[in-house]
Amino acid sequence: MSVDETPQSSVAPSYARLSWLLVPLALLIGALWWLVSSDLLGNFGNGAPPVENLTVERTILDQNGIRLLVRGGGSEPMTIAQVQVDSAYWRFTQDPPGPLERGSVAWISVPFPWVLGEAHSVTFVTNTGATFGHDIPVAVETPQASSLNFVSQGLLGAFVGIVPVVIGLAFFPALRGAGPALMKFLLAMTVGLLVFLLIDTLEDALEFAGRSASIFQGPMMVILAAGASFAFLLSLSRRQGAPSGLALATYIAIGIGLHNLGEGLAIGAAFAAGAAGLGTFLVMGFTLHNITEGIGIAAPLLKIKPSLKHFALLALIAGGPAVIGMWAGSLAYAPHWSALALAIGAGAIAQVVVEISALLARGSKDLSSGLMTKPVLTGTATGLAIMYVTAMLVKI
Amino acid sequence: MSGWPVDLKRRGLMGAGLLAASSALVGAKGALGQGDQVSGHQGHNSAAADTSAHVNAHGEMITVGDVDSANNGFDPTAMLTEWDTGEVSYLPDGRKLRTFQVTAEDKEIEIAPGVKFPAWTFNGRVPGPALRVTEGERVRIVFKNFGSHPHSMHFHGFHAARMDGIPGAGLVAPGEEFTYEFDARPYGCHLYHCHALPLARHIHKGMYGLFVIDPDPARHPEMAEAAKSRLLGTPENARWQEMAMVMNAFDTNFDGENEFYACNTIAHCYAKKPIKVVRSRPVRIYLVNVTEFDPINSFHLHGNFFDYYDQGTTLTPTLKTVDIIMQCQAQRGILEFTFAEQSDHEPGLYMFHAHQSEFTELGWMGMFDVVEALS
User: Fold this and answer.
1) Is pLDDT at A266 greater than 90 in this prediction?
2) pLDDT, tens digit, for every residue of B114-127?
């Protein structure tokens, strides 16, 4: 082997090396062709009708009756042959008409005289006789996208999203002179409340995932999206070392904000679906519950001197998405979008939990001696307890 | 933030007072976009403007589209008057022998517009052929099973144990055949059905039909006129408008509840194509209930009353002047009525249906189109 042979072999025919890619590709094509042409799967066919799947993603009730956005998820295109409302066949129109391709959507309109405040159930009968049910638990006219709604929904979103964060941040001056123990306690309390939110967010995300069309593979989508957002935000925050102070507060705000976005979508969707009997006590409960979020954001700031502008921005980052979620949820909503938003939020919250824990452990010999201290343990427990107890106010 | 009303089923979240309170909280009435929906659903306009009278009579509450009768191989309107009287020959003692050919076949049929059902059929139709004989005749049914499962024909009537059509007595394996033979007795409105096991599945799949034994006037001299009017082929019978109706239903998703109800299989068929009835002639309906999964079915006539002959085994009505009767599974009878006697009976559409509203709304509803003369 001479010395000048080596560069030749590695550099020279790069396209030739590329052409070797064609071999596995050709094999793949050949294998697929064989699969189809030899009807290899034919031996497994037992004459059973194709599996059908139908998911209702949106429900609109108005003067003209009921409109439903359905998504097909069958192994083959499926046909909606008849539509029942409350165990009665009704005329309906489908837009676009014809068989529903796998993953495609269509609007089904039924001129059904629904009754305000009562429950209705819709059943789709396909051409194979399979049925898919959809419940309308309480019939209320679907809000139109009017400017009044836009403003008032925004106001309600701001009330449950921004106001509590601002109130929480207002504890900042009182906590200003905190000693190191109180500091640690407050940061650990933030961890506690974030862990609560993490579990809660994942639970909600999985619930939405369960209601989304099966082709989205809900639970896997939630786990992947949460993991990706966790990894992305962690790598982002670690570009200049572990974050602290304003940077850490910002990340906490982002995590909480994404959580609030998902929840905003949920509330908006509830309005859109007509199940929007949010009582005063609920709104008050949420507000109380969310004040802790503001304290959590304020905790990493106690050692520095942030400006008022910073506080305003943090409140907006953490609470503002609730408003956007309200709008988006009530205008265009499908369960998989809510699941996705909540999953991203869960990832973001997990990232903040890791960062605050790292901050608490900083300067200690090892992780356990940094975290297994009295203020940290009591703080975490306090955070969890506050969230748990205030959540009782709003849990139905 | 936990517990937002993501579970939309929870009625507990509802409450007008709370709703108003939260609206007030954000300082804008109608904050939830629900301020003006009190009369929201009044006055729906017909989306599909079909102006034909029978559609108006039932509004938007009806199946969409039409069933392809040609593809099915049977038409519910034709079924009303299709009687299978078999092939007539004579026994050595001079008695009439009626021979019927019946086959069992697997067949996918369209039971409602666009909805296919994997049926098991007699002679390729559901219900099977309406067999009609006369009291005292010998009946011979050559039954061939071309289906994928064992089947039988169990006749309601007098017959020997060997002819019963239950396992061990005329249950026919796929590809085999069996001949049922018995005397036609008693006269009445009967039925036959497959008695293979599991019973419910075989019946629900479509294996049933009318079996009518007309009274022999010679055997009922005291009621000869009534008997003659029931006997197919007599002038007395010819003035009657006779119809065969089998109340049935289909559970298309196999959950033990029916998705479609009908008379003669096709949901809403007589609503979309009303049955023409000449006003001056009386109407007689041979009605049988083979609805599976529901204990009873019923028949209600609008704008009129009828006489009812339970099981059809009498020549005088068992119920007089009623407008609704109910039948248990396999119960049957004869309904007689006319639109000629009451001055109020103008030509037009007279509805008939099960008076279980649910059955009506799931397809068991039709119309008589009363006319002065057939056009």
Assistant:
1) no
2) 999 999 999 999 99
Residue A385, both tokens: 């307890």
- Residue among A66, A89, A155 with most chain B CBs within 10 A, to mutate: A89
B208 within 8 A of B246, measured Cβ to Cβ: yes
pLDDT of residue B37: 35
Tokens describing residue B330: 């396999």
Of A155, A271, A391, the CB nearest to B33: A271
Measured distance CA(A324)–CA(B181) in Å, rounded? 79
* SS3 assignment, position A30: helix
Enter the tokens of residue A308.
Answer: 């008022």
Which of A156, A191, A385, A343 has its CA nearest to residue A259? A343
Reading the block at residue A278, the tokens are 């949010």
pLDDT digits (tens, 9 = 90+) for B4-25: 333 433 333 333 333 333 333 3
Residues 194-213 of chain A with CB under 8 A from chain B are 196-197, 200, 204, 207-208
CA-wise closest residue to B1 among A295, A291, A190, A250: A291
Question: Quick one: pLDDT at residue B232?
Answer: 96
User: Could you tell me if A117 lies within 8 Å of chain B, comparing CB atoms?
Assistant: yes
Contact B258, B212 (CB under 8 A): no
Give yes or no for a contact between A101 and A87, defined as CB atoms under 8 angstroms apart: no
Helix (H, G, I), strand (E, B) or coil at A79: coil
A389 near B CB under 8 A? no
Whether the ipTM is more than 0.85: the answer is no
Q: Is A390 on the interface with B (CB under 8 A)?
A: no
| Closest listed residue to residue A78, CA positions, set A121, A130, A133 | A130
Token readout for A243 is: 């974050």
Distance in angstroms (rounded) separating the CA atoms of residues A190 and A298 = 9
pTM: 0.78
SS3 B180: strand
Calpha distance B180→B164 (Å, rounded) = 8
- Within 10 angstroms of residue A83's Cβ, the number of other Cβ atoms is 24
Under DSSP, is residue A65 helix (H, G, I), strand (E, B) or coil?
A: strand
CA dihedral in degrees (B300, B301, B305, B311; nearest 10)? -50
Distant-in-sequence contacts of A311-316, Cβ < 8 A, 24+ apart: A311/A169, A311/A172, A314/A165, A314/A169, A314/A249, A314/A250, A314/A253, A315/A162, A315/A165, A315/A166, A315/A169, A315/A253, A316/A162
